[in-house]
Specification:
This is GNAT family N-acetyltransferase. The chain is of the alpha+beta class. The chain has 2 domains: 156 residues, 3-Layer(aba) Sandwich (Aminopeptidase), CATH 3.40.630; 158 residues, Aminopeptidase. Strands 1-2-3-4-5-12-6-11-10-9-8-7 form a 12-stranded mixed beta sheet, sandwiched between helices. The longest helix is centred in the N-terminal third of the chain and has 18 residues. The radius of gyration is 21 Å and the shape is globular.
């Protein structure tokens, strides 16, 4: 096979062999953007490929040279619910294979396929560790929609006494639960509803609609998390009447315990002003230290415009680790640009 041939695989055609080849390619790219991180384990990616949500369409286009993937495009799109206009795009070319037009070729395949399915917008992300990504996005007709940073907390940098201070509470009726084995059945519907608070996170100029989380989606994501070899810890705050008022979650892979990922954090508007966000974050940091003594850092991604969350994170000790930009491009504009150039 030459490096100009493109292979397509949808979510029904994924194999363990492909997962291994894809992860080898991704690890070569990861060495460029995250040289100090451990490599991804193919077993985790294959595990997730076998447990994809039934409402998710996942497609890969690859360019291969002697059985080695040198470039790929991946799209994912949900078939029900909101944002039916949108397809998320990941496009990566190995450093040694750049400058040959492979990215443009793959973008054309992905854009035409999404157009045929009625998708009108492509959305992807770049980071400042790989400047070639931003340059490609601009040439391809994408526009920046959201600026953010991956922020990192080194656990040794947490100020002395801060966790005690943030977890010492007045007798105001709020209580905290920590779940280490998934969301309890009795709280599933309420937790799914609570997750909709994340629609209030800044989206800046992104053409994205609010997403309504369902209980089925919560369970599907729990399955996907476990299939990827991750352990998840969720902390929730209950209001004085027992209803859920706020949440935060973290996860890590026991096989690679040093790096912990911070996911959602949110408090319902009616319950803000009680320092619940700080309580949640501090409580979950304590759970990380208790359950994963080999953890050394926590990483999270925040919009640069998310002042309230950045204030909490900065006070806790998070510092900028990597800048990233979310780009969006109308499918018609992307295809027109490819034809012109």
């Amino acid at each position: 096979m030459t490096t100009t041939d493109v292979q397509h695989r949808d979510h029904t055609a994924l194999t363990e062999e492909f997962a291994r080849a894809l992860v080898a390619h991704l690890n070569r790219l990861r060495a460029e953007s995250h040289p100090d991180d451990p490599p991804t384990d193919p077993a985790n990616v294959w595990g997730q490929m076998q447990h994809l949500p039934p409402v998710l369409e996942l497609d890969f286009w690859t360019v291969e040279d002697g059985g080695t993937i040198v470039a790929h495009a991946r799209t994912q799109a949900f078939t029900i619910g909101e944002n039916g206009h949108l397809a998320e795009l990941e496009l990566m070319v190995s450093p040694a294979a750049r400058g040959r037009g492979l990215g443009r070729t793959l973008l054309g395949h992905a854009a035409r396929a999404m157009q045929a399915r009625g998708r009108t917008l492509l959305m992807g992300q770049t980071n400042d560790r790989v400047p070639a990504g931003e340059a490609f996005a601009r040439r391809a007709g994408f526009q920046p929609g959201l600026s953010s940073h991956v922020n990192r907390l080194l656990l040794t940098d947490i100020p002395d006494g801060l966790l005690d201070a943030w977890t010492t509470r007045p007798d105001d009726g709020y209580t905290l639960d920590v779940w280490t084995d998934g969301v309890p059945d009795a709280d599933l519907e309420a937790y799914a509803e609570l997750l909709n608070v994340m629609n209030g996170a800044p989206r800046d100029d992104l053409d994205v609609e609010d997403h309504r989380t369902t209980p089925e989606e919560v369970r599907s994501m729990e399955t996907l998390t476990r299939a990827g070899g991750r352990v998840a810890v969720v902390a929730v705050v209950r209001a004085p009447d027992g209803t859920l008022a706020g949440l935060t979650d973290v996860s890590w892979r026991p096989a690679q315990p040093g790096i912990v990922s911070q996911g959602n954090t949110g408090v319902l508007p009616a319950h803000r002003g009680h320092q619940l966000g700080r309580w949640l974050k501090a409580a979950n940091v304590r759970e990380v230290v208790r359950l994963n003594p080999q953890a050394t850092e926590i990483r999270t991604q925040n919009a640069d415009s998310n002042g309230p969350m950045l204030k909490i994170n900065t006070d806790l000790g998070f510092r900028p680790f990597m800048a990233s930009t979310v780009w969006q491009g109308a499918v018609t504009d992307v295809l027109s640009g490819l034809e012109r150039n």
